[in-house]
Design brief:
about 220 residues, alpha+beta, Beta Polymerase, domain 2, eight-stranded mixed sheet, globular
Length: about 220
């Protein structure tokens, strides 16, 4: 049983992240369902929380900005208080934050891995791509996780809202983005229910070149 389910959250939006992380000298971006709505340019459902992505190597910079907050590691359905100036454990990929113990949770920091200038999928390091193509910038200047990458994250243990996000988003993806997601799922979950929808397009070619032109299993852009 997930003991974190049902805990109160303050319903923030991406513009609130700009305020909370003002002055942070490290890249950060909106993740989760908000990222997909930023890509689509329209809202389709209410959001109960705000996910913000950051590279693990930059987390100390982000935590410094939130130094007065309570920060907890979220793992295995439990919360563990992170001591002041401490770094999260290497097997922890999400941090919950709130201003004080009397406040609802306000932000969830999602820790992503990197290898130099390459983003690395934490669930399978064979999947990686340039960081520059993994993060996009919206018309309002706020960065968000590329939709094909966010859908890859959502593909594991899908909920009804994840299937809805996929159905609303995948037809809007470019051929390159759709092909990338198709190949990523073929690698990590070839029987996933989303593969059939994505296979409606010919993913054997990319920009006119055969996929075999990139013989490594690393799914680079």
């Amino acid at each position: 049983m997930n003991r974190l389910a049902g805990l109160p959250w303050r319903a923030l939006c991406p513009s609130d992240a700009v305020r909370l992380l003002a002055g942070v000298d490290a890249p950060w971006w909106i993740a989760g369902g908000w990222a997909l709505e930023m890509f689509r340019g329209t809202g389709t459902r209410a959001h109960t929380d705000l996910d913000v992505g950051v590279l693990r190597r930059d987390i100390s910079t982000v935590l410094e900005r939130l130094s007065g907050w309570e920060i907890f590691e979220a793992k295995g359905g439990q919360l563990t208080r992170l001591a002041s100036r401490a770094l999260p454990r290497t097997d922890v990929y999400a941090l919950w934050g709130r201003p004080t113990a009397d406040d609802p949770w306000s932000i969830e920091l999602m820790l992503d891995e990197a290898d130099g200038d390459m983003w690395v999928y934490r669930r399978d390091p064979r999947i990686r791509r340039s960081f520059a193509t993994t993060i996009r910038q919206g018309v309002d200047g706020i960065c968000y996780l590329a939709p094909e990458v966010q859908l890859l994250y959502k593909s594991r243990a899908t909920r009804e809202q994840d299937d809805a996000d996929f159905a609303q988003t995948w037809p809007l993806l470019s051929d390159d983005a759709r092909g990338w997601l198709y190949r990523a799922l073929e690698l990590v979950a070839p029987r996933h229910q989303w593969v059939q929808s994505l296979s409606a397009k010919d993913h054997g070619k990319k920009n006119g070149h055969a996929v075999e032109a990139c013989p490594s299993p690393l799914l680079k852009n």
